[in-house]
Please model this.
Amino acid sequence: MKTLTLFKRIGLLLLLLFPLFSQSQPPRAPFVISPKVNPDKTVTFSYLAPNAKMVLLGGSQFGQTDVPMTKDAEGVWSVTVGPIKPDIYPYSFKVDGITVMDPANVAFFPNERFKASLVEIPSDAPAVYALKNVPHGSITYEYYPSVEGSTGTVVIYTPAGYTKETAKKYPVYYLISGTTDTEETFWKVGKVNLMLDNMIAAGTTKPMIVVMPYGNPLAKIAEQTGKDKPADVMSRDGEDALRRMKLFETDLVAQVIPYIEKNYRTINNRDNRAIGGFSRGGGQTLRTAFNNVDKFAYVCSYASYIAPAEMDKNFTSITANPIKTNKDFKLLWSGIGRDDFLYKGTVEFEDYLKTKKVNFKSYVTDGGHTWMNVKKYLNETLPVLFK
Amino acid sequence: MKTLTLFKRIGLLLLLLFPLFSQSQPPRAPFVISPKVNPDKTVTFSYLAPNAKMVLLGGSQFGQTDVPMTKDAEGVWSVTVGPIKPDIYPYSFKVDGITVMDPANVAFFPNERFKASLVEIPSDAPAVYALKNVPHGSITYEYYPSVEGSTGTVVIYTPAGYTKETAKKYPVYYLISGTTDTEETFWKVGKVNLMLDNMIAAGTTKPMIVVMPYGNPLAKIAEQTGKDKPADVMSRDGEDALRRMKLFETDLVAQVIPYIEKNYRTINNRDNRAIGGFSRGGGQTLRTAFNNVDKFAYVCSYASYIAPAEMDKNFTSITANPIKTNKDFKLLWSGIGRDDFLYKGTVEFEDYLKTKKVNFKSYVTDGGHTWMNVKKYLNETLPVLFK
Model:
């Protein structure tokens, strides 16, 4: 059929387009489908590597670690695991000891330090984070003027209907991801947009705008202005970490919030601003909220805390007058998993708040320091914001 | 300093959070910065792999292929290459024969079949696709009702000022990426948003909305409804390829365009609609435009063509009355690189149009079937749309 010449040529020649990515593959390499979620909730993972000696499935977060895969005659390694508890999990392959993403899977975990693919195992009754047939909000990427002359990047969720309306205004949830996560992680992994689509459609949650900033503006300054050395985000050096923390807070309060309130239809008072975050983002949340009580009435800490010594040193303004603090914060929320490596510190923080008679809501769940748990924290907190 | 307990713990324990991605690293693994673009336009690439036997830099698109890297005492492999001609290039590492993205680099090439990182070498006078201090437009991700009950995903560029205005309407450029690219590729790799920000600020280009659909809606149907088997996008089977092509056209004309025109402030006539695309997206562009002359007045083919035999069979409506066709299309544009594997077919297509007296604008440049060339095609075409 002459009409299909172009398709045939593309079919034949696609592997030639980017020779650097395909040199080990024969021209008629099998078309790998991976992952394949089976009806019984087992999952089959596959990876093409005719010359590899050993391929393992890395993905301890769904309960199995380094599962050996087996090679077929075409050089495709595969393994079926599970049934797996419905959720969204990161995974990767270990190919002769080298960690790689799944090249056949476009769903990935945005992160600055590791590369992982994502697999979603659907539940029988669709989960609160599932893509359902409800009105959908939008996700928008913006550039904005950030600290020290740099250009920042921020991701914004607006609820269904936002673009069609011209007058309605909304409360705003500022939501911050963790160390080495990016401004994309809370929607691409945390699915906060789909959760809100579903919750708003069900009438359980107030329509809101969610603003997801990038957590380490120092890196943008270094990259764009050359004024600063690229920061070791994991450095334990006290001054560096403190500078990153203050830059984040300045960026959020003096740059991000004014930009959002100028360009979006927001309700601009503390009762209609919430702040929350996971891991480092939770630490940034607590410090920013405690330093800016005039700005935020709702505060959500997902798997993070401030140590009592730091509270005593920097945040007596919060603990000195608990009656005022308890009136100021309409919600001070702390969630943690029993297996989270920050569990002990979080309990110490909560005990400290109790001693100081500062009210908070505590939520303890199974599991560790994972984005599976972040979705549980979102599920608990989104419905109680701005009410 | 007690105040830094949280940061210290995160610094220490980050590697424990996702053990699957870091088991081969010691707890005090060096913090790798990669890539590092040097002032002389050389680039230093680095990759941590203490146990690897051989690491190569894969990245033939900047003129060097499989460059051996050398290991330092900490297990970091690195190499400095260049000076490299300013542009944005994909690259990866080959670690003992396994292709991997750069784990230290968050910039990546969205694609369904290969995983590559991106490096930008800036030019002395900032390029037309560089991030500059000009008013920036927004990138928005939307879900929309797609073909056969599936939910589609589409990415939309709106120019600076769009969100603040309430009445101004804009022309729309429908822009389609290639085989295995995604709806993200035209902005994350092609930088169409930054190009338009710069061109609109310079006054050379009309403010416009750009709509970037996903090129293979059959895959969404398969994934979401189970009605269809996951498609081998590279299959050479005639019926499959034809079905994918028709589904794309139906989706664009009957679903995407009505959705956009309902939800965005668009000028809804053919003189204010353009269609363009790269590779498979260029083929989809030509076929969709030729089948829907009432819809689009501007047509841009970036490195693609229709074979004369298919033109004779399916598109005599275009060639039978060239005076009408030349009046219908305010622009029919064809760009190709001399080293592109589709060069010969494109020349045949252009010769065919000449024979049939159908006007078109031809643009021939150096280079191959690459996104470096796509940016050149955008640079030529964006300023002449809607004028």
